[in-house]
Inverse folding.
């Protein structure tokens, strides 16, 4: 699915609350720009049957008290299955998700600090990290710019 189609799907599936579809449309350039930096249009995410993403807590080697929570995105179903932890307590499924949808969901997913996308099938050693904080910052700037443009389009003599 192309990035434009992914964005259109996000807009079409947004709540019809009078603002969410317009907000998604406004931040679409940011989502698309971030997605274009990645190799794949969809990634497999390990999740529980009810749709909760599997998070992994990583510790800093130099400072073990410094931790972050990440979600891994895999380029293939085989890679996702191979990385599935062998836990008897929960069944995990590998679900393919469009990359723009992952980035969009990250905006509201406070428990996750980063998404780490593995780009090369079979290689789970090197990934591309996308930090939630950076996505939020880029979206905030885009929304500010969008609102400024919207204000400047209002005629001064509108009463």
């Amino acid at each position: 699915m192309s990035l434009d189609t992914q964005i259109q799907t996000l807009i079409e599936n947004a709540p019809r609350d009078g603002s969410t579809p317009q907000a998604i449309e406004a931040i679409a350039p940011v989502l698309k720009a971030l997605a274009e930096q990645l190799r794949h249009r969809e990634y497999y995410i390990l999740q529980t049957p009810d749709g909760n993403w599997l998070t992994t807590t990583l510790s800093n080697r130099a400072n073990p008290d410094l931790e972050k929570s990440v979600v891994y995105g895999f380029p293939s179903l085989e890679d996702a299955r191979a990385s599935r932890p062998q836990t008897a307590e929960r069944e995990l499924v590998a679900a393919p998700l469009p990359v723009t949808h992952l980035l969009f969901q990250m905006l509201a997913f406070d428990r996750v600090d980063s998404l780490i996308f593995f780009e090369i099938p079979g290689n789970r050693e090197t990934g591309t990290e996308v930090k939630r904080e950076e996505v939020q910052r880029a979206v905030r700037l885009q929304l500010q710019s969008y609102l400024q443009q919207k204000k400047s389009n209002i005629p001064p003599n509108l009463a």
Q: What stands out?
A: The mean pLDDT is 91. Residues 26 and 146 are 6 Å apart (CA to CA).
